[in-house]
Design goal:
Number of helices of chain B: 6
Largest sheet of chain A: 4 strands, antiparallel
Largest interface: A-B, 22 and 23 residues
Number of strands of chain A: 4
CATH architecture of chain B: 3-Layer(aba) Sandwich
Structural class of chain B: alpha/beta
CATH superfamily of chain B: Mannitol-specific EII, Chain A
CATH topology of chain A: Histidine-containing Protein, Chain: A
Order of helices and strands of chain B: HEHHEEEEEHHH
Distance between the termini of chain A: 37 Å
Strand content of chain B: 15-25%
Oligomer: heterodimer
Shape of chain A: globular
Number of domains of chain B: 1
CATH class of chain A: Alpha Beta
Helix content of chain A: 25-40%
Number of strands of chain B: 6
């Protein structure tokens, strides 16, 4: 069972509001691995929109993304790329 | 955060809580909710078109049905100088194309001024933290009066802070 983690900072202006949270969860649910996101000691299920929204993370916040399972590497890469691409937002 | 969650709870008034809301579609659920809020003086009729349009635009980007029977229709508006929050309970539920495919029973409406970014995320965090609690959802849907709901929101806000 593979487990991988990476830290990535939010770089979209409005941070982890509803739309990025939903997009993150949509992508996470495309993988079989467990996805966990941690911000300042608070750990949430990365496959639940409600839980992701409880992070309330503004721009610049560092997310620690951990994935665990057969496709952990692919899942982590996809989610990190999503954050770095500002969830498709212009700024 | 405790003080902030407490002050978010104070954004609700009895007028901004609608119980026993019925609708046969997502669009109807939102439009009749907004109409009700105009009647109760929470929103002004001359802003209704702009608010409806902004909410509709946001829904077209992706349903705000976030799972567990909860939806958070929201928009940022230039005409607002402070945030407006309101809550509707739909005992029979409505199909909202929510992310988990389940009907929505609880609508948390959030309208924020365009200029206040961090408050918007903070309010969504507060709403999500309440909504995550199965106890909150259960007690909310059993509430008989808006006053009961206000007391529940205040109590839960203190617990989750």
């Amino acid at each position: 069972m593979t487990e991988v983690s990476r830290k990535v900072a939010l770089c979209n202006r409005h941070g982890l509001h509803a739309r990025p949270s939903t997009e993150f969860v949509r992508q996470a649910n495309g993988f079989r691995s467990i996805v966990e996101v941690e911000v300042r000691g608070q750990k949430v299920n990365g496959k639940s929109v409600i839980e992701m929204m409880t992070l309330g993370a503004p721009v610049g916040t560092e997310l620690l993304i951990t994935t665990r399972g057969e496709d952990a590497e692919a899942a982590l890469q996809a989610l990190v790329n999503l954050v770095l691409a500002r969830f498709g937002e212009k700024e | 955060m405790q003080a902030k969650f407490g002050s978010f709870a104070k954004l609700f008034t009895e007028s901004s809580i609608v119980l026993g809301h019925q609708a046969s579609s997502k669009e109807e659920a939102l439009s009749s909710f907004l109409d009700e809020l105009v009647v109760k003086g929470v929103l002004q009729r001359e802003h209704l078109k702009e608010i409806s349009s902004a909410l509709g635009k946001r829904e077209s980007l992706g349903s705000t049905g976030i799972g567990n029977g909860v939806a958070v229709p929201h928009a940022k508006l230039k005409t607002l100088d402070r945030a407006v929050v309101a809550l509707a309970c739909l005992p029979d539920g409505v199909d909202y194309a929510a992310i988990d495919g389940e009907p929505v029973h609880i609508l948390f409406l959030l309208l924020s001024p365009t200029k206040e970014g961090s408050t918007h995320v903070g309010l969504l965090k507060w709403i999500a933290t309440l909504a995550r609690s199965a106890d909150f959802r259960r007690f909310l849907l059993r509430s008989q009066t808006p006053r009961d709901v206000l007391a529940l929101i205040e109590e839960m806000s203190q617990e989750i802070a």
